[in-house]
Amino acid sequence: MGRPGIVFAAQQELVSARVLTKETVAQSPASSIEGAPAVDPSMHADDRTRYVRACLVGGGIAFVVVVLVLWDFGLNPLRTADPSGVFSNFYDVQARAFLDGNLNVPEGSLSIEAFVVDGRHYMYFPPLPTLLRLPILLATDGFDGDLTAPSILIAWVLTTVLIAMFIWRVRTIVRPATPLTRAEQWCYGTFLLVASGGSILVFIAALPWVYHEAYAWAISCSIGALFSLLGLIERPGTRAAIATGAWVLAAVLSRTTGGWACAVAVLLCAGWFAAGRRGDAARSHWWKVALAALIPLCVGAAINWAKFRHPWMFPLENQVWTEVNDHRQQALAENGGSLVGPQFFTTSLINYFRPDGIRFTSIFPYVSLPAETARAYNGAFVDQSYRTGSVTAFMPGLFVVAVWGLAMAFRCGAGERIRWLRFPLLGALGITAGVMFYGYLAHRYTAEFYPALVVAGAVGAVDLAHRLSNARRGARVAAGIVVAIVATFSVVANLTTAVAAERVAARGSSLRDYVIVQERMSGIAGNPLDGYLRAGDELPLHADPDELWIVNDCNSLWLSTGDDYGPWINIEARDLAFELTVSEDLTPRAGRGELDLLRFDAATAMSVTVERLGRSAYRLVLALGDDDRFTTQWFEAQPGTTFRVALRADPAGDRYFLDGPNYWSIPLQMRQWNDDWLLIPALAVESATVRRDAANEGLDLRIVNGPTPSLCERLQERL
């Protein structure tokens, strides 16, 4: 479903929520509402105004937080997670394929994420973000690869609006005749702030690439489907069933796990209607409700079948990453050919809900992901594992309120209207199954718990806000202080973690500026950064997170990420140049000769050699491993002529440039994948005998080091 369909469904639900209060009060006796005194319905118009004002304040603060992270604290609305744009253009590639009438995409366009079936390359992400792009891509190709950040922002706004609408709908269901108090107003605004600006949504905004865009839309569409389902239960009818079906379809086309969980919740509701538990009027609509789930499931299954010959799974054994990664192959073999199963439940439970799943440090940004990568438990053999924060540590307020909401909704003796909430709650809890039984651990996967946190949290917030309104003033003040502290912590913890992730992914000047901030903040606080400084002639395979390593007297400066797969990121590197002058006194020998200039300590052996032919013809040879050799064209250098070979660092591009005569330049990877698929730095080392060998070849050699990088120089002085 495209954007107009989603907007139409949201508009219909908003209209329903606006007219709901008066009609519900008129139709429902006060005795059916738990603890709700009868009041004049006309006062609810003012209640809605004050509620909207509270949401605008809470959502507005959250918007500032998210935009700052998404745009890298500047005006950069088209930013991508990686400066090269890699992994941020997949939906654009798929959209172009759709416009050509194909489900498959060009070979190589998805890199290691492609699934190869019958020689065709497919993307496993469902196509909703692709469909939303089509109007723009039909008009121009000027934004190809640049639409991920705007898409995430639109999804975030939609999510925030839906959460606000969900809270109000819950309140009108359980307390339709109760006036909105100032304490409630404050609570709801704070809840929206924490949900939108103190949660995993901030981390998602930090890295605008396909993985996070998929979650941004999966979250918003899942919440939309559950919000619409609650409206359908409250006011059964054809229009409500159509709106619910539209949202479920959007959820299915965003992420399979979320969409299917929402569809199952709708099917349960259809069965409830058919059994007459909602009344005779609702029973006549049961088949419409069933279709609202079955049609989206059929559409999603048809798309997945067309690509992978399965209604919901995709063949991991056919992914390019599986073909090149031995650990993935071993993980599949150890787990019976799949990465889904009950053997991963304990591992996910501990890592995603451990209270200490967070790290506090003495250096900026002070709060970050745990120092160690997530561990496996009970003998589980997981695929990939990254530093992973827990739900309880990074979203403590949402977690506590959600637990309270679940207890209120599923407690024995809950009233009829409270029991209505169980269907969207079951749908939200069902979404979590996708990650609880999955053998892959990453911080972004805590987004799978987010719909459950906000849906159950909305129920808990309504109940707790009501209780707080009736509490004594001292209790309200104490609760307000606690809520303010928890809310502030949630915003700060998620913001700082997002900033660190964004700067590491961005590399270059963004990462350097980040370390400079660490340096300055450290100077104010007694220089705790000194404890993170290290120096050596080479880098170890792993180091503790946030350590800064100075290599070879400031030839380069590196940051330790703490992750296994990319343990090092370059911050600065000094340029290196070789000026070679053909000697006029010593005539070089006839025939061929060569001079080894550089080698690289890297996963794949690399070396740079100057090759001579006769007395005045030279070229450069770049050797990669034992077999691959790349050569430049021959160039002439007569006696007395000087030519220059330089190695120039580009930390932002994660590469070097090897520059030579005649304006040629060869890019080289600054980090390389080793046999275990760890991204290992390539450190340049000049040949130990280069001066002697140059003289033997009739060349006068002058090695010119670039200026010492200023940040590295300052840090080295502290050692």
| Helix amount | 40-55%
Largest sheet: 6 strands, antiparallel
What form results from the Cα inertia axes?
elongated
Describe the oligomeric state of these chains in a short phrase: single chain
Overall residue-averaged pLDDT value: 91
Distance N to C terminus: 59 Å
Question: Number of domains in the coordinates?
Answer: 3
Radius of gyration: 30 Å
Strand content: 5-15%
Give me the secondary-structure category: alpha+beta
What would you note in describing this structure?
- Helices cover 50% and strands 14% of the residues.
- The protein is an alpha+beta fold and 719 residues long.
- It folds into three domains: 3-31 and 43-496, no CATH class; 510-571, no CATH class; 574-709, Sandwich (Jelly Rolls).
- The strands form six sheets. Strands 10, 11, 12, 13, 14 and 20 form a six-stranded antiparallel β-sheet that branches. The chain has a five-stranded antiparallel β-sheet with strand order 17-16-15-9-21.
- A hairpin with a 3-residue loop joins strand 11 and strand 12.
What is the gist of this entry?
With 719 residues, the protein is an alpha+beta fold. It has 3 domains: 3-31 and 43-496, no CATH class; 510-571, no CATH class; 574-709, Jelly Rolls (Sandwich), CATH 2.60.120.
